[in-house]
Amino acid sequence: MKNKAALSIYIGFSIFYLVITALNQEAIARFLKPFLLPLLLVAVYNSPAFTTKKLLLTALTFSWIGDVILLFADKGEIYFILGLVAFLVSHVFYIVLFSKQSISKTINNKISFGAGTGLILLYFFGMITTLGPQLGPLTVPVVIYAVVISTMLFYALKGSFQWNTIPYQSVLIGAIFFISSDSILAFNKFDQPIPQASFLIMITYLAAQFCIVWGILKLNQKK
């Protein structure tokens, strides 16, 4: 019950934060942001033990570290790079987390799986081709990050064909939201300003973290 309460508070607090962000109350939003992910950490910590629980907690912790560091991105490029590194580590743990979930069946619909994999590759090369000329000295770290998030999405897609329970869709949707949030951030920073970028980045990011956490908890709940 404690984890359900924390998840409910996270949803309510996220909605409040997004309203503040939409109203361009940046000072209040900056103050509230570090308190968002700890609610998911509490939800996971209070959930019954399961094999990949520590992986999920670690992934969320590094995401939270990235959230905090990026609050200072306007102070210098080093903060953006460090935030990128924190989220890269978080995604690596999500990859391991998704790959270690118990598998209930093999992939039967190989055509759909192949099409999904193709779309991920198309996304990756599209991002690199579009943003590449604008990246400058950040080309290598951004390309590495793009490889990692694309891999994270691939494992979520793969799991969606193997996990024989309803919540598998939540994990895949969360991964799609996550890659959408990162893409909006990248285009806003390196290509051209996007209207209401902060709101769009955060609504997709907060939805991503919730969907992944909720899906993983459901996949591992005691029957």
From TrEMBL:
InterPro entries for this protein: TMEM86B-like (IPR012506)
UniProt KW Aminoacyl-tRNA synthetase keyword:
no
Bilayer topology term: Multi-pass membrane protein
A Pfam family the protein falls into: YhhN
Q: Where is the signal peptide?
A: none
- Entry keyword set: Membrane, Transmembrane, Transmembrane helix
First-listed, main subcellular location of the protein, grouped into a coarse class: membrane
Top-level taxon of the source organism: Bacteria
The membrane spanning regions, by residue number, are: 7-25, 79-99, 111-132, 138-157, 169-187, 199-217
Q: Does the keyword Metal-binding apply?
A: no
Q: Where in the cell is it found?
A: Membrane
Question: Could you say which protein family the record assigns here?
Answer: Belongs to the TMEM86 family.
Record protein name field: Lysoplasmalogenase
Q: Which organism is it from?
A: Flavobacterium ammoniigenes
